[in-house]
Design a protein that fits this description.
By secondary structure, the protein is α+β, with helices and mostly antiparallel strands. Helix content is 29%, strand content 24%. Strands 4-3-2-1-5 form a five-stranded antiparallel sheet. The chain is globular, with a radius of gyration of 14 Å. Pfam families: DUF2958.
């Protein structure tokens, strides 16, 4: 798999996480569409098809959900003013994906608000 969005190290980590898809691990990477509210927190890639990533997907419409996304499609996407999807170079997950998911469901968007994430971390898994 070749990617302009992801480094070799990130791809290796996504593949490693794909070997144990039932583990609740932190997301590896945050992608976002500049000029929109769309964002993706990716946890792994599918072992049989490393173009398909799994994570928390938020198209900016108020309905973030866990699901699969094509990395190739993300790379070809163009948002407002023709801007490409970017990787947040400074993203470091502080919680497992389930915590980001609970917080996102509460506020209808992926959030990095420390209080919301802390509260989501204290809740029992569904």
């Amino acid at each position: 798999m070749s990617s302009n969005l992801l480094t070799r190290e990130l791809i290796a980590k996504l593949k490693q996480n794909g070997l144990t898809p039932d583990e609740d691990v932190p997301p590896v990477v945050k992608l976002f569409a500049p000029g929109t509210d769309a964002a993706w927190l990716l946890r792994d890639v599918v072992e049989d098809d490393p173009d398909i990533a799994f994570g928390l997907c938020d198209l900016g419409l108020g309905f973030p959900e866990l699901g699969y996304v094509s990395l190739a499609e993300l790379e070809t996407f163009r948002g407002p003013r023709g801007l490409k999807i970017e990787r947040d170079l400074y993203f470091e997950a502080q919680y497992p994906l389930s915590v980001y998911t609970r917080a996102a469901r509460e506020c209808c968007a992926i959030t990095f608000d420390p209080e919301l994430l802390k509260r989501a971390a204290e809740l029992k898994p569904e």
